[in-house]
Automatic annotation (TrEMBL):
Entry keyword ATP-binding: no
Domain of life: Eukaryota
Keyword Iron carried by entry: yes
Organism: Mantoniella antarctica
GO biological process: fatty acid metabolic process; response to oxidative stress
Gene3D superfamilies linked to this entry: Haem peroxidase domain superfamily, animal type
The organism's taxonomic lineage, starting at the top: Eukaryota, Viridiplantae, Chlorophyta, Mamiellophyceae, Mamiellales
Keywords from the named record: Dioxygenase, Iron, Metal-binding, Oxidoreductase
Gene Ontology molecular functions: dioxygenase activity; heme binding; metal ion binding; peroxidase activity
Protein name: Uncharacterized protein
InterPro entries in the record: Haem_peroxidase_animal, Haem_peroxidase_sf, Haem_peroxidase_sf_animal, Oxylipin_biosynth_metab
Amino acid sequence: CNIPARLAAAEVAAVECARAAGVCTLNEFRMQMGLGAWSTFDDMAKEPELAAVLQELYGDVDNCELYTGLLCEYNVGNGGAMLPHTAHMCSLPLNIIAADRWFSDDALADPELYTNWGTQYAAGASLAGLLATHTRVRVGGATVDLMAGGAGGDVQVNIGYGARSVFNVGAL
């Protein structure tokens, strides 16, 4: 998979978060979507080097995690897009915005819903502030610093331009 080195910490964090949450494996996900399960890493990846690394890491294709599998699986006849991964990545920002009341200006301005204190607090709140307060992730400009607790320093990860349009990074 072509993951830039500067994003490695974020990728590792995504895998660890999925493990902690008990996210299904790639084959479990494919079965739920009505797709056939992969029987070997060679069929799944179509690249011998990648298949060998996946075999070494997971042992059995049924153990391959969803996030890793979505990035590494090969599909035929779709113009090069990994369908499950592409569909997920396209729907993710929309679901975040639709489901998260922090992105709803009309609700944030309603004191009957959030109380007077809540609307005043929300008016001064930002995504950067929420991340810093609740996740130990600092956002500044177009850079996210993942604070490595006990690792002796911060890891900088640049936010891609796609995230700017969703989260208006310049306003953070």
